[in-house]
Amino acid sequence: MSLRASTTFDGKNQLQVCHLFVDEAGTPDIFDAKGRNNIGKEGCSRFFLLGMLEVEAPETLTEALTGLREQLRADPYFATAPSFQPQRRKTALLLHAKDDLPEVRVKVFDLLRSHGPAIRFRAVVCDKEAIRIREEAKREAAPGYRYDPDHLYDQLARSLFAKFNGVADRFHLRMAKRGSKDRNAALRTALEHAEADFALSFGFSRGGPEKWQTTVTNPKDTVCLQATDYFLWALQRFYEPRVHPETGEVTHEDRYLNAMWPQVSQIHDLHFDRAEGTFFAGGTALTLAQRFGPQLQKKKKPQV
C-alpha cells in the first residue's frame, strides 16, 4: 500500500507525516458481573470494531466538517431539533452518527465521499461469540480466571497497526480516549509489535516506535475522529443484526458501507472463514451474501 502522507515542515526539514485517527465501535465486554454471557443484550454488542482513518490534510477535513455542522445549526430546519440543542450535548457540539438525524448523516456521508482518496479507512472486526467460547474454556480450566475487556481492545489494536504498511518520516496517531484508565503502555506495546511485524514482512524498518507520536484525545477536540466515527458506524450497521420486535426478522444494513466502500483500504474480519480471518479490500468487497450467507434473514413467528 502506498501512503499519501501529508507534507509538513519541521524547522528547515520537510517531512512526510502520516495522520491517523483511531476509534472503536461496539463494546469489548462479553460477560455480566456474575460471569454470564451478555452478548446481544442491551448495551452489549455482538461485534467489536476498531477503525483507523488516514487523512491527507487533517486541517482541511476539520474545517469542512466544522463548517457543515455550523451551517446545519444555522438552518431553521435543524435549529429546533432536539439533537441540535446545546444542553443535549449532541450534534450542537459534534457530529456523531448514532445521535445525528438521518438528514444530517446524508450530508456528512456526502461530504466525506467528496474527499475521495484523501481519506482512507481500515478496520479490524471481532466476533465476540468466538471470543466467548475461548474465554469460557479458559475459565473452565482455571476457575479463578476472569476476562478483561481491555485485553481484547489491545489485541485488536495490535492487529490493526500490524496490517498498516504505510511509510512516512513520522506518524501522528490520535486515538479516542476510552474510560479513565491510562492505556499508554498498552498502546506503546501494540506499536512495538506492529513495527516488528513490519520489519519482518518487508525486510527493513520504518524507524521503530520512536517515529510515532501518539495523542489520546476526544472527538469534540479532534474533529477528524468524528469522520472515523461515521465510517465505523457504517461498518457497524453492516455487522450488527437488527431484530424486528414483532416479526423477529433479522436484518443487516449494507447501504452505508456500500456508499463508502471506495474509501475503504481494508477490513480484516478476524473470525470469518479462515483461522487467520478474512481480508476484504478493493475488488474483494464485503457483501452481506458473502459474510452472512444466503440465509441472511431469518423469520420467527411473532409471539401472541
Overview of this protein structure:
- It is a single chain.
- This protein is of the alpha/beta class and 304 residues long.
- It has a single domain, classed as 2-Layer Sandwich (Nucleotidyltransferase, domain 5), CATH 3.30.420.10.
- Helices cover 36% and strands 20% of the residues.
- The protein is built from nine helices and ten strands.
- The strands form two sheets. Strands 1, 2, 3, 4, 5, 6, 9 and 10 form an eight-stranded mixed beta sheet that branches.
- Helix 5 packs parallel to helix 6.
- Mean pLDDT is 89; it is low at 297-304.
How helical, in percent, are the residues?
Answer: 25-40%
Distance between the termini: 55 Å
Return the domain count.
1
Remind me, CATH topology?
A: Nucleotidyltransferase, domain 5
CATH superfamily: Ribonuclease H-like superfamily/Ribonuclease H
How would you classify the helix and strand content by structural class?
A: alpha/beta
In the CATH hierarchy, the architecture is 2-Layer Sandwich
Instruction: Give the C-alpha Rg.
Output: 20 Å
Q: Provide the CATH top-level class.
A: Alpha Beta
* Helix-strand sequence: EEEHHHEHHEHEHEEHEEH
What's the shape? globular
How many strands, what sense, and barrel or not for the largest sheet? 8 strands, mixed
Report the uncertain regions. Answer: 297-304
Quick one: how many beta strands? Answer: 10
Beta-strand percentage range:
15-25%
